[in-house]
Give the backbone structure.
Amino acid sequence: MTSCRYHLLVVDDQAGVRRMLLEAFSDDGYEVELAVSGPEALKKLRNGGIDLVLLDMKMPGMSGLDTLRETRKLNPDIPVIMMTAYGELELLGEAKKLGVRHYVSKPFDLQEVRYLVRALLADRRPARRYLGVIG
């Protein structure tokens, strides 16, 4: 029997946030990949197979918005939930222009995040991971 599991990518520079989301979503039956930075996240997105991204707004180096811009070039339709400790309307407005419809403020309610992920993936088929070329 083949298992069709959704793959989530959690992008956050805070180890505690990554660990909490990894444990929660793994327990819920999702495959979870972690990235500490924008460049690491983009590398994982280029490999394919990611169904949804949970993305921190403020990270050192490449910001969440810059990562989001590059994500949209790679996959314009992938659902993204922005996570921020900063309720800055200007940043959220820019994220909305880039197609983000959902965000959570840190510290967030884990049940709310779980609900958002389920709702955003309800009508989507799991993405296929690129395993390489045979031949």
Q: What stands out?
A: The first strand starts at residue 7 and ends at 11. Residues 130-135 have pLDDT under 50 and may be disordered. The chain has one domain: 7-123. The longest helix spans residues 15-27.
